[in-house]
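Ticket opened by: R.M.
Priority: normal
Category: complex prediction / small molecule

The reporter submitted a protein together with molybdenum atom and asked that the result be attached to this ticket for the collaborator who will pick it up next week. Submitted input follows.
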Amino acid sequence: MVSQNEKSSTRLPPGQRETKALLRWGVDHPGITRSIPRRNLSTWKMVVDGLVENPLTLPWNDFLKLPFTEATIDFHCVEGWSVRNCLWGGVQFRILADLAKPKSEGKFVFFESEDGYTTSLTLEELDKAMLAYKLNGKDIDDELGGPMRLIVPDKYAYKSPMWVRRITFRDKKDLGYWERKGYSDTADPWKNDRYR
Ligand SMILES: Nc1nc2c(c(=O)[nH]1)N[C@H]1C(S)=C(S)[C@@H](COP(=O)(O)O)O[C@H]1N2
Ligand SMILES: [Mo]
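Result attached by the on-call engineer:
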């Protein structure tokens, strides 16, 4: 198997062109709502619930205590732009899943964000995902999904929700915002897998 890093050093997925920086929400392109959710770390909480043995409600300070890792990951928007070598820092999704202890039937993970955006992935697809709060060594700006967003390597970016606030383990697949509108649920940029 070719790793993400080997792939990114040689080529971009089909139909993608390189841009230098991530597009800022509400500045470079419109989101699903006009307004950008502004962080309030004193009231921020992440909820992990559904089919888990141990539901979690993590305030910001507790979230920061989870083990920190960094990874260099390319970013591919389904509209055709890619940003190479983003250095994301945060908590591996697996660490949070291990704390929440999904039941055997809870294999479908549904994400809800502050702006009403949703997406979903299987536990297997989330194996290398990160709940990121740093980008290139700095806190992630509100315009780029801060204080915390999911980053899923090797999926189009609509599978990387910004401003995540709730993660629910379910026993069936429920489609997210763009997937319901016709975008691919598997979203593999290397297969040009854009539409359902
Ligand atoms: N909450 C939320 N997350 C989202 C979206 C959104 O509208 N709301 N858009 C997705 C899409 S289509 C893209 S390309 C990226 C954009 O991320 P960026 O603003 O960091 O470039 O966020 C993804 N995650
Ligand atoms: Mo996108």
